[in-house]
Amino acid sequence: MASKFQTKTINEYKAKGYIVLNIIKLSDSGYPDLLCMKAGVSVWIECKELNDTLKPLQKYRIDELIKQGFKAFCLQDKNGIIYPKNKEFKEILCLTK
Questions:
Q1: In the β-sheet with 80-83, what is the strand arrangement from edge to edge?
Q2: What is the pLDDT of residues 83-92, one digit of tens each?
Q3: Fewer beta carbons within 10 angstroms: which end of the chain, N or C?
Q4: How many structural domains are present in the chain?
């Protein structure tokens, strides 16, 4: 079941014109919750409630997606992007507005 924060994120990205797929189950575990697509850009988003933590496998999958050239990050309620912590934040934020 989707969290309230995940539902809020889905609605925000749809309002920005993205096609949003809620990734419920893939053959491999740990991939982000959402795949958002718009104008040839794909953004993978792991959604976390305020009291939830990012698991090591989820970090690994985000890093794996970034290495393949995708935009991927973990978004936490009230804290914004919490992973990865690097200079690509500005680029990711520009793409997701």
A1: 19-22, 34-38, 41-48, 71-76, 80-83
A2: 998 755 555 5
A3: N
A4: 1
